[in-house]
Amino acid sequence: MPADLKTLKQDLTRRMDGAIELLKKEFSGLRTGRASPALLEPIRVEAYGNNQPLNQVANVSVSGPGLLSVQVWDKSVVKAVEIAIRDSGLGLNPQTEGQVIRVPLPPLTQERRTELVKTAHKYAEAAKVAIRGVRRDGMEQAKAQEKDKKAPISQDEAKTWSDEIQKLTDQFIKTVDQTLADKEKDIRQV
């Protein structure tokens, strides 16, 4: 149990930062109008008897505004990588040229953009729920510290702790909202 507000705030900040980082990682996998290697990050390939992340069997790079290039390191895995990309649910149709797989990104339809925005909102809401969970933990620790027999804090101090935790939470929720607005703008951009 943290003995002071500073330690508690550091712990809560670290945990809330984790929720923001996860949100950004999830957003990077959402397709926008631009090509990004992060789009293929969640893809796993059946290779060498294991289910491997794509980045462990190939190098992904951007070849143009609407084209990703996947340089597979081992010829025996090219077909598996192509199948994994095709079956990923991202609506991509890879084309193989030797050990290089070109992945053209078709333009997004308005319907697909709306779906992506809804998905982005779900991810943002999940991040907010995680941040609120961290806030709840912090509030419980403040109450527990107030009732602690060894090192109790006064009701005024407990109120100060609660106010500080709420300010921290509001700040992180605002960051989630801003990140969502930026991603939504990215998705809607034609």
UniProtKB/TrEMBL annotation:
Classification via Pfam families:
RRF
> Keywords for this entry?
Cytoplasm, Protein biosynthesis
- Does Cytoplasm count among this protein's keywords? yes
Region feature (Disordered)? 139-158
| Domain Ribosome recycling factor, first and last residues per copy | 23-187
Q: Which residues cross the membrane?
A: none
Spell out the InterPro entries in the cross-references. Ribosome_recyc_fac, Ribosome_recyc_fac_dom, RRF_sf
Localization terms from the record: Cytoplasm
Per its database record, what is this protein's job? Responsible for the release of ribosomes from messenger RNA at the termination of protein biosynthesis. May increase the efficiency of translation by recycling ribosomes from one round of translation to another.
Q: Which NCBIfam families match?
A: frr
HAMAP family on file = RRF
> Which family would the database say this protein is a member of?
Belongs to the RRF family.
Q: What is this protein called?
A: Ribosome-recycling factor
Q: Which organism is it from?
A: Paracraurococcus ruber
